[in-house]
Write a structure and sequence with these properties.
It is built from ten helices and six strands. It is an alpha+beta fold.
């Protein structure tokens, strides 16, 4: 019969509290980082409170994949470091209880957390990403006058392209304004240039008023003239103004929610079943497209002249070529060289296309592997933090926080490098997504072995001294030879 012993309760009580504290603190810090990153997209949009709270809620849900492993790592170092500092580990070990037995209740808890993390990554995270980024899309398209960037053409107004050189953040005045008006569907026939401009939305949020100062308007008079008529023969109109107001009709500038089905095909917004189905369908489509491309090329280039040859007779190419005169031989050489270059160009393009296809597929493969790497990260971080805390024997907030950030930063950087290598098709999805996990596993095995056998971690200076000694001896041997 399974019974929870007092030692297990003691360890679990000491573990749960720092786990919850570090989990909420790291989640809050990551949420602040998210807010700082996207604050420009939200300020001044007139968003209602429930929209902001909804955005923060889904952002928080999406950040759990980063805060949970970090919280497990930090709380593990904190727990066993504090027990080592207060000599509790020594007292427990002296009674014949091993370190692994002390870690056992927390291992059970983290196994449950890892299972929940898998279901979170597979079911909850794709849904939260879908809600979050569809909401961010709607926020970014709210009040376009706030989204105009300096030196970049703005397309937030339908059939109008606007570009500014600079912008005053205090009074929202824009300078060196250029406007291309395409509302008549005549191309770039209506251009307005102004020294400065201001923009505001009417109270009913149905129209956008753009006030221009000290500018010119250039327009080709296309009405009554054939659109395909030579441009130089069109009538031309030029207008100067000191102040001019232009009215743009807007569909609606109330906060409208976009249909989320437009975003559900993104790899970050699919669960494991959807990702497997998408990968299979993409592979089938791409294989069919590549085969059709190869078949079309070889049919129309390589085997184009096959129907002109009687297939019932063997053809001696050397005999035919020797029977040609010099002019036809030169022509044959040139045509053969052209065919070879064409084939080389086709194969080069085909290889590049396959690499691009692999990069597109790898985005979905990355998300598929992430469903599992998060669960493994929760377990791995415990087996790194717990033995490390038992080795250093330092509790409090100093050592656990510092070393947890160091270990997690190492894992995060390795994960980003591996993910980037998969996206660029340099490594397979399995190699790129799991080698950071493998490195952390080796670190965890090393720390666990050292902690179980009560060995001290060799300081880095002694490691470097040992390596220097070995290299010096090798160099001394070779110098004698």
């Amino acid at each position: 019969m399974f019974r929870v012993k007092k030692l297990d309760l003691l360890v679990l009580k000491a573990y749960v509290f720092p786990l919850l504290i570090t989990f909420f603190v790291t989640t809050f810090l990551l949420l602040m980082q998210f807010l700082w990153k996207y604050i420009d997209d939200m300020v001044g949009k007139g968003l209602e409170l429930h929209i902001i709270l909804e955005l923060f809620f889904y952002a928080t849900v999406g950040l759990l994949q980063m805060s949970l492993p970090l919280a497990i790592l930090c709380s593990s170092i904190f727990l066993y470091g504090s027990m080592g500092e207060t000599n509790e580990l020594i007292a427990i070990k002296s009674s014949g209880i091993s370190l692994l037995r002390i870690m056992r209740p927390v291992i059970y808890v983290n196994v449950i957390v890892a299972i929940l993390a898998f279901f979170y990554a597979n079911n909850l995270l794709p849904y939260s990403n879908l809600r979050l980024w569809s909401l961010m899309y709607d926020i970014r398209n709210q009040r376009p006058e706030l989204n105009i960037k300096e030196g970049v053409f703005f397309d937030g107004i339908e059939q109008v392209r606007l570009k500014i050189a600079s912008k005053n953040r205090e009074n929202e005045m824009m300078y060196d304004v250029m406007i291309y008006d395409h509302r008549k569907n005549y191309g770039n026939t209506n251009v307005t240039v102004a020294d400065s401009a201001s923009m505001k939305i009417t109270d009913d949020k149905q129209y956008l008023i753009l006030t221009l100062y000290n500018g010119k308007r250039y327009e080709d008079v296309v009405e009554g003239v054939d659109y395909n008529y030579v441009r130089t023969k069109r009538p031309f109109r030029e207008q100067y103004f000191t102040k001019q107001q232009v009215l743009f009709e807007l569909e609606s500038f109330t906060f409208n929610r976009t249909d989320m089905d437009l975003f559900k095909h993104n790899s970050q917004m699919q669960n494991m079943t959807q990702l497997i189905s998408t990968i299979d369908s993409m592979k089938t489509t791409l294989e069919y497209r590549n085969q059709r491309s190869f078949h079309h090329y070889y049919t129309n280039n390589i085997y184009r002249a096959r129907s002109k040859i009687d297939e019932g007779h063997d053809v001696d190419v050397d005999t035919l070529f020797s029977a040609l005169n010099n002019a036809y031989k030169i022509q044959s050489y040139i045509r053969a060289l052209n065919y070879a270059r064409s084939g080389e160009a086709f194969l080069t393009t085909a290889i590049e296309n396959e690499q691009m296809q692999d990069m597109s597929l790898n985005k979905h493969r990355i998300e598929l592997h992430k469903k599992f790497t998060l669960a493994f990260a929760c377990l791995i971080m415990f087996f790194v933090g717990a033995p490390f805390g038992a080795l250093v024997r330092k509790g409090g907030l100093g050592v656990p926080v510092i070393f947890s950030f160091i270990f997690y930063l190492l894992y995060y950087v390795l994960s980003m490098i591996g993910e980037k290598s998969v996206k660029s098709a340099e490594n397979s999805a399995f190699q790129g997504m799991w080698y950071p996990t493998g490195i952390i596993v080796l670190i965890g095995i090393y720390f666990t072995y050292m902690a179980v056998h009560d060995k001290l971690i060799t300081p880095p200076k002694y490691i470097f001294a040992y390596i220097h000694k070995k290299f010096s001896s090798i160099f001394h041997i070779f110098s004698k030879k």
